[in-house]
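Quick one before lunch.
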Amino acid sequence: MSPRLEASLGDITMEAVDAIVNAANPDLASGSGVCGAIFAAAGPELVGACAALGGTSTGAAVATPGFALPARWIVHAVGPVWHGGNHGEPELLASAYRRSLEVAAEVGAVSVAFPAISTGIYGYPLEPATAIAVATCRAGPPEIELVRFVCFDDRTLAAYDGALAEP
Ligand code: ADP
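Model of the adenosine-5'-diphosphate complex:
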């Protein structure tokens, strides 16, 4: 069965789901954007947990505990930097979503919240990014029951609503 997909406005650090996804960088370091917010809210133990993992690659995902977050797990997924669209960006973004759900299922999560990976500092155009997010999560592993796309602004929510309305 496909997971139930929904989109809402919010701050992902407040989401009481089993796993939230971080729009991470390959070094698994803190930074700005949603990644900085997650590191600030999870607390200092997250830095050590990420350092112990030693980094990951674009399109991949790894899990840590959520520490001080309401979510039990953080899945750190690395989306692509947008370089015009002919450098494997769509495949890498789809991989980041697919691997996030697989890693979430491996740790036993059934509900997962995503930010709009790559659409901020990494510059991926919003509409194609949300279409990939929705299509990839619809085909998610059977263990995942709920996927929530947490949008930080109205424009992002409108893009997800459009993508979710597609058959
Ligand atoms: P990337 O580097 O992958 O582009 P960003 O953090 O720059 O990641 O942006 C990804 C998306 O996350 C953007 O839509 C941004 O507005 C959004 N965002 C930023 N902070 C939060 C937050 N606390 N909760 C949910 N989304 C957030």
